[in-house]
């Protein structure tokens, strides 16, 4: 199968660690040139150095919530690589409380990071994506489809991300720009690994994963590579007729399609 990443350029936010980093490495291995974006320089530089063993990669240290950050990121990608074909809006955080426990500034910060940053990045990338067609991928969460108690404001931001994805796909299809989303469930992360080492250091990762699976039908926590596999596919030419959809990466635990 030909993913046709050769000569393509991708920007991936939140790509110093986790799913963003793994996605960047997969795309580079398939021939893409990737600009990594994150706030922490040490982790970002390390990721770029490691991924560069497989191909062409650059990075920019940038908080995407800052003024004009999106324009700076896109300009850096185009200056370095000459074009832009793929945008992965991955930057985010996990912040969840009950409605009465959340202050208004927390709402504003969460929406700014998870919704408005995707809007600003997509707007900045649009002139370049229109040149050759391309793909925008928004990372959201399974709970965005079925919000639970004590899940605010993150589930509201993630639900907005789903609506944004669908609406953008309708507007940008005429430029051959595909817009999709993935809804992340329980996936291995630095936070989960710390919990594992603190709570059950005597267990192997596989044992801890199975023990912590809870209501996940596949019976384990997902791996970052499994999430990156889906993202890499959706942004590739193999998914050339897929747009406006949101794919669950959750081991079957979600309660919505």
TrEMBL record:
It comes from the Bacteria. It catalyses: (S)-acetoin + NAD(+) = diacetyl + NADH + H(+). Keywords: Oxidoreductase. The keyword Oxidoreductase applies. PANTHER family: 3-OXOACYL-(ACYL-CARRIER-PROTEIN) REDUCTASE (PTHR42879), NADPH-DEPENDENT REDUCTASE BACG (PTHR42879:SF6). Belongs to the short-chain dehydrogenases/reductases (SDR) family. Its EC number is 1.1.1.304. This is Diacetyl reductase [(S)-acetoin forming]. It holds the Pfam family adh_short_C2. It is an enzyme of class 1 (oxidoreductase). Catalyzes the irreversible reduction of 2,3-butanediol to (S)-acetoin in the presence of NADH. InterPro entries: NAD(P)-bd_dom_sf, SDR, SDR_fam. GO terms for molecular function: diacetyl reductase ((S)-acetoin forming) (NAD+) activity. GO terms for biological process: bile acid metabolic process.
């Amino acid at each position: 199968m030909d993913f046709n990443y050769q000569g393509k350029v991708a920007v991936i936010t939140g790509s110093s660690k986790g799913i963003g980093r793994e996605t960047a490495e997969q795309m580079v291995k398939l021939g893409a040139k990737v600009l990594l974006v994150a706030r922490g320089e040490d982790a970002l530089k390390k990721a770029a150095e490691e991924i560069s063993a497989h191909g062409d990669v650059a990075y920019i240290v940038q908080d995407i919530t800052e003024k004009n950050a999106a324009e700076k990121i896109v300009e850096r990608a185009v200056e370095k690589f000459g074009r832009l074909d793929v945008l992965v809006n991955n930057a985010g955080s996990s912040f969840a409380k009950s409605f009465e426990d959340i202050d208004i500034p927390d709402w504003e910060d969460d929406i700014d990071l998870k919704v408005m940053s995707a809007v600003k990045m997509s707007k900045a990338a649009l002139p370049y994506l229109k040149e050759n067609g391309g793909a925008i991928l928004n990372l959201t969460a399974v709970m965005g489809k079925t919000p639970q108690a004590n899940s605010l404001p993150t589930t509201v931001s993630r639900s907005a991300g789903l609506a944004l994805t669908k609406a953008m796909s309708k507007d940008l299809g005429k430029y051959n720009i595909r817009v999709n989303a993935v809804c992340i469930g329980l996936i291995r992360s630095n936070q989960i690994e710390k919990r594992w080492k603190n709570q059950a250091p005597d267990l192997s990762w596989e044992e801890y994963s199975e023990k912590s699976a809870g209501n996940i039908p596949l019976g384990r926590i997902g791996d970052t590579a499994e999430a990156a596999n889906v993202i890499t596919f959706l942004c590739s030419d193999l998914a050339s007729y897929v747009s406006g959809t949101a794919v669950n990466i959750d081991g079957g635990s979600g309660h919505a399609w």
